[in-house]
Design goal:
This protein has 146 residues and is mainly alpha-helical. It has a domain of 89 residues. 36% of the residues lie in helices and 7% in strands. The chain has a two-stranded antiparallel sheet with strand order 1-2. A hairpin with a 4-residue loop joins strand 1 and strand 2. It is elongated and about 100 Å long.
């Protein structure tokens, strides 16, 4: 036996072990200690960096294949390739969606929305198909002009 006043405590269940907790354990993971340099270099926002905002409605629909045309890159000019003839495409959801895409600023969305909107309105009988959609098209086109 040791005669000095030092007593060794046995580990109890309350004390945390030094090993990392298992992923399924309820113990929270400890946050890393902040570095002293963090005070000297505060976090800033990069105004020219990529924004982490969700894609617009037009971009999401285009990515899912909801617009029946694709951009074909030519050596000099780009063009749209339609999956079916523009004359047979239903105008109701598509024309409004392409009008919403006119607000886009990124390639290929800008080109697809402008050319698709223009090509749909140039098909034969487009006037009769587009007139019933005017109440829904006007606010979208106004928003694109702002």
């Amino acid at each position: 036996r040791m005669s000095s006043g030092i007593q060794i405590k046995p580990k109890t269940a309350v004390q945390k072990s030094k090993t990392s907790p298992l992923p399924c354990s309820p113990e929270p993971v400890a946050k890393p200690q902040p570095k002293p340099s963090d005070k000297l270099n505060p976090k800033t926002i990069d105004p020219f960096g990529a924004h982490s905002r969700p894609p617009s409605a037009f971009a999401a629909i285009y990515a899912k294949g909801g617009i029946p045309c694709r951009l074909v890159h030519g050596s000099v000019k780009h063009r749209l390739q339609w999956e079916c003839l523009p004359e047979t495409v239903p105008f109701d959801p598509l024309l409004v969606t392409l009008a919403e895409g006119l607000r886009e600023t990124k390639h290929p969305y800008t080109f697809v929305s402008k050319e698709g909107f223009k090509e749909l309105l140039m098909v034969e009988g487009a006037t009769e198909k587009a007139i019933p959609l005017l109440p829904r098209l006007v606010p979208v086109l106004k928003a694109a002009l702002v």
